[in-house]
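Page 42, continued from yesterday. The earlier attempt failed because a stray header line got pasted into the input along with the sequence. Redoing it now with the clean sequence only.
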Amino acid sequence: MTSEDRIYYCIDMKSFFASVECAERGLNPFETNLVVADPSRGKGAICLAITPKMKSLGIRNRCRLFEIPDNVEYEIAIPRMRKYIEYAADIYELYLNYISKDDIHVYSIDESFIDATDYLKYYKLEPKEFAKKLVNEIADKVHIPSTVGIGTNMYLAKIALDITAKKTKDHMGFLNQQLFRETLWDHEPLTDFWQIAKGISGRLARLGIFNMRGITEASEEVMYKTFGINAEIMIDHAWGRESCTIADIKAYKTKSKSVSFSQILFEDYPFHKAMIVMEEMVLNGCQEMLKRHVITNHVGIYVGYSKDIRESTGGTVRMSETTNSFNIISGYVKNLFKNTTDQKYPIRKLGIFFSDVCDEGCEGYDLFTDFNKVEKERNCERAALKIKEKFGKNSMIRGMDLQEGATAINRNKLIGGHNGGEEQ
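This time it went through. Structure tokens are written below.
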């Protein structure tokens, strides 16, 4: 079997969060003006999703509330991430009625790749027929509309979804290498293509390249000089080629390991309040490492300032200990935060990362560390984690979480940085 004999689907749930909210209300997303946003964040709140009906009015997705024209009446739905995860799980379960999990790659909460090759023979269906069966099942049982890209490799399936399917009445697009070259080689702008953002598009434009045909005709030497090893992927994609399969993705294991957290603060924070939040983030990181049974000796922080009034600051530090102890790591982070943060300006963004993590068996301390104290702390933290897993993240809180400016209690109610749908 050649690569062109395989059939992949890329299935996307249309305006997923907004469609879920419509399904919950018994509304048709193609006939309803609804946005998913948190109005408590003011008119500047970003809409996480808008219905297809609102898109048809020329309103862009991911707009802010104040950008919606005053003459458009609409309903606001507060984000409920747990509810969206439930729907995504239901859709995945539906796939499993027809397809093995080994042939499904969940790309995001609302988008999945499926290797349909063997199932077409088994069900004796054509590519579009099987795709239509899945789409209809999702619509009938979960009440969510979807779009499908069909391709002879994963890249072409994604492009068929993002570009070709938007021009068809049945919301399905099909591409093989020949069709890709015939119909999309001269398509502009390049930013419509997966993995070509404005930055890459701008660099290509400086080389006089404005479409996929231009990439195929460009000097490979110039491409590699400009984009490094990524040039190989760009050239392959310009020809409609992609060697990666779902099996490759499932077999992939990252070489380096890290734990990281970041957050955008709801309002401007002075230095002393931001320090409280940073300390909470250290605790989150240490607890996550405890769960994974890993440790680190390398920690770094990032600080972004209000309205970008100055460049971000931050830094990294190598610790003499290799540990996941909050009491040890927090001391390093406090010093790093004090020494690298500009205390004159209000803070709006915070990030922390623990890199080069390794198994707890690599644990190491200096001569002055009280190992018994470290072990006692670890046992207490593990007991606390078990309680939180059983009764919820806010079933146990620390004194610092009650200080003015602390965010942990509220963030524990969020999923992916958004309202989880819990009763407050």
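Notes: The chain has a mean pLDDT of 90.
Reminder to self: strip header lines before submitting.
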